[in-house]
User: Which sequence fits this backbone?
């Protein structure tokens, strides 16, 4: 089974690319969705212990957590130390399930794939990328997004140019959705038949 790492900075079109992989019958693990699940379950007591007052009614209050993190630069590292191992467990479970059903490919959609060294655990790295002006326009159009929040998020992400240089494949999402989908379709055909080694090396025993 070929393990594909899908990533890209905020607003670059990961969701559109991931949806097209699914349209091609390929399983996709959404790391953001996994974090949402953890923030309503397993991670709650751990985050409350590390950041008192940031949970409410059995869930992490994202606004309170963000406020706590903005006051403490070291907080992001402590939060990552809590959340990343839990997400990794969920990724391993997903890949085992895909392997058991006989999948030839599986996608891990992870926003901070390169920043966390996750690219070493996949066979192929796919980066979605668009012009910076378009990225900014997309992100600031999101409900509740501000210039300050965008700057904070972008500041924790690797520059797009560096991501492009480190990618095995770059999907240009600066055009239409149909164009992005066509690029994913071509990529799936291109990757068909490739034999992956990452699952056996890094995930089979996880």
Assistant:
């Amino acid at each position: 089974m070929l393990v594909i790492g899908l990533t890209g900075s905020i607003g670059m079109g990961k969701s559109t690319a991931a949806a097209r992989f699914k349209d091609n019958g390929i399983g996709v693990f959404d790391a953001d969705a996994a974090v949402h699940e953890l923030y309503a379950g397993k991670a709650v007591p751990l985050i409350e212990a590390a950041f008192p007052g940031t949970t409410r009614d059995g869930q992490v209050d994202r606004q309170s957590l963000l406020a706590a993190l903005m006051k403490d630069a070291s907080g992001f590292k402590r939060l990552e130390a809590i959340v990343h191992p839990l997400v990794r467990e969920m990724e391993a479970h997903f890949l085992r399930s895909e392997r058991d059903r006989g999948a030839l490919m599986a996608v891990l959609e992870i926003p901070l794939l390169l920043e966390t060294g996750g690219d070493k655990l996949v066979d192929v790295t796919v980066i979605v990328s668009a012009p910076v002006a378009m990225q900014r326009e997309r992100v600031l159009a999101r409900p509740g997004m501000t210039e300050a929040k965008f700057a904070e998020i972008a500041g924790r992400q690797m520059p797009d140019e560096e991501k492009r240089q480190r990618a095995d494949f770059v999907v240009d999402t600066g055009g239409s959705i149909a164009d992005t989908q066509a690029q994913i379709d071509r990529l799936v055909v291109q990757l068909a038949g490739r034999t992956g080694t990452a699952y056996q090396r890094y995930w089979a025993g996880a």
